[in-house]
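Holo prediction — xanthosine-5'-monophosphate.
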Amino acid sequence: MGGEFTGGILVIDLGGQYTHLISRRFRELGVYTSVVPYKSVDRTIILRSKALVLSGSPLSVSELEEVELKKFSELILGSNKPILGICFGHQLLAKLFGGTIEKKREFGRTEIKIVKRDPIFDGWNEFEHVWMSHNECVTSLSSLGEVLALTENECVAAFKVFHEGNVIYGVQFHPEVKHTVKGSQLLENFLKITGAERNWSLGNYVEYVTKEMMKEVGTNDKALIAVSGGVDSTVSALIAKRVFKDKLIAVFVNHGLLREGEVEEVLSNLRSLGIEPLYVNAEDRFLKLLEGVSDCEERRKLIGEEFVRIFKELIENDPEIKYFIQGTTYPDVIESGVVSGSRKIKTHHNVGGIPSWFKIKILEPLKYLYKDEVREVGKLLGIPEALLKRHPFPGPGLAVRIVGKFTKEKLEIVRKASKIVEDTLREYNLHDSVWQAFAVVGDDMWVGVKGDERDQGYILTIRIVESSDGMTADWARIPHEVLDIMSRRITSSLSKVTTVTYAITSKPPSTIEPC
Ligand code: XMP
């Protein structure tokens, strides 16, 4: 899509753990935000924005080299925009304006005193509680700056500078975190001060993205979309249908790596929404390719390429198909390392994994949205609650839940055990409160005893996590009785499993899927 949002907030990502939270909070206030890693920021991106926000960072301002500071100075101070620096961003701005930074740690709930009234603190009392997380702080400013708030340790909690007609603020604390009681108020005050446009609503988004796509496509153009029954591809298909109408071809490929009963469920859900998918049963093709492959990334690559080969075959048979629609969301783009500066964790085959030989124009109607925003859009478009509540399921399906050699035997174990895990959670009303729940199997064996006989079988791991966006996650504290029931059901119905374990590591340091 050619058009981009203008007039919003550009969040410059300096590596802080709360960067996306900052962006989310501004969106909740009705402003479009883009998050761009520092190294990818350029004049064009800056010009499109109304104001800049500098995030936190694991870096230390005192250790920054002169050349790095010079680069920051040119880019940020030369931007001619209002700026809000948060935590590291605050220290960086103070340093650029000649302030002093010293080692002083403040963590957690901290009281600050407002020493100078300013519109940024409208609605704040003289003393307020904020959330701090820093090892260094600004202890003095040059004559250019004005201190607005202090902490008990004499750290500058907030300051203001006027620079070439623009107002620049720094806050040492994190207004984006709920523990900063009036954090949202401060962000709202910043929006008022900058005059950023409050035109971000999900209803507007659907209209915007539909119009953008309509501008680009010709009246007879057809588009192909791969649907999986998941929220992202279903919402993408409903948006694309507004644009392409009966010229949208939705394809549902069964790669043989789906969950039990999934084919029937997906087909019936899509039909109820007015989408009649073309069903391609490619089980044999995929399973033949994967048999015996041990390396996870290799498997993802094989699956991704085979998908694309199927799409290519369909496109070659119909020259009117000019577009391919992908349900890429905002964090997908970032986590797949497509945006420079972010690291690739796993090749999510649906993002950045399209081989160069697949020559077709790509449309990504969700690429500006966070996952929960996609759900909201889905609700607006009339998707039933039950479908919106489905757990995310990876494109490469059960293949990423098999560790070590890929075999049909392990695939069947994972499929059956996952069904037990999900059904048991439903039975105990726990399914909707977790992000994902599934079973994993590897090559490790455990000696068991069946009757009086020695037995040998697989170790099966149950993974149940809580998360809000899949970028971080924690293992779910499922009651022991429920885990016990799952374990018994799995070992009694799967003779090849002798032992069941529960994965109790968060992401990071682990990831959600094992492979
Ligand atoms: P990880 O395992 O990276 O997963 O912590 C984060 C979220 O992404 C899903 N996931 C994938 N989704 N293609 C997808 O479409 C993939 O290759 C893929 N790998 C992981 C995972 O289920 C979790 O929700």
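READOUT: The chain is about 35% helix and 25% strand.
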